[in-house]
Amino acid sequence: MKVYEINLTLVKSFLIEGKEDILIDSGTPGSGKKIISRLKELGKDPNKISYVIFTHSHEDHIGGASELGEKKFFIHQNGLDYLKEGKIRKPQIHSPIKILFKIASPFLMKPFKGVNGEAIKEGEFLQGIEIIYTPGHTDDSISIYLPEINSIIVGDTLGGKLKPPSIYENYDELQKSIEKIKELKPKNIYVSHGKSFISQ
Ligand SMILES: [Zn+2]
User: Fold this and answer.
1) Percentage of the residues of the chain whose pLDDT score is greater than 90
2) Cα 58 to ligand 1 centre (Å)
3) Cα 1 to averaged position of ligand 1 atoms, centre (Å)
4) Which domain holds residue 189?
5) What is the value of pTM for the model shown?
6) Rounded CA gap, 113 and 163, in Å?
7) Is the pLDDT of residue 23 over 70?
8) Whether residue 158 has pLDDT greater than 90
9) What one-character-per-residue DSSP string does 142-166 give?
10) Coil, strand or helix: which one is 142?
11) Total of domains in the chain
12) Dist. CA 107–CA 183, nearest whole Å
């Protein structure tokens, strides 16, 4: 089992290579092409990847979903409407970047096409793929834990250098979720923005 990072505009998606390859997140609207060409570079047939799991419903994680073709899309229950309707979940910002964000948001918050998805629950998704509910950044944030390689994909629950994000809907829940992640003592922690923590 292996995790590949797919660098997109300001954000990443991830490919979990295993018995069944799984794509995590789909970037901003317009990222579909880039994801597909990167998958081909990795020697994958993008049509054979049937599962896409979203870490949460911020637009820079679900915006490119409709460009990926026929897939089975999974997101936490609380994010389902955003995914289906292409609805924008406004980031709750708690730092000076708020002003910058206000200026940039008409460009970032482009409308996008929704896709049909299914709700994903905490627990085993497929053999070796565990879903952990990690709310705080948003109320639909999940992390994907891979016990076989003791690695976890946390989306935006942690940022580069494992800093807690300054965007969150609930601070206490965020702290609890970060603790939950740390208790697993993962060797590798993959984050969507910035540098992942890779020890192996
Ligand atoms: Zn986010």
Assistant:
1) 87
2) 5
3) 26
4) 2-198
5) 0.95
6) 32
7) yes
8) yes
9) EEEEEGGGTEEEEETSS-GGGPPPS
10) strand
11) 1
12) 38
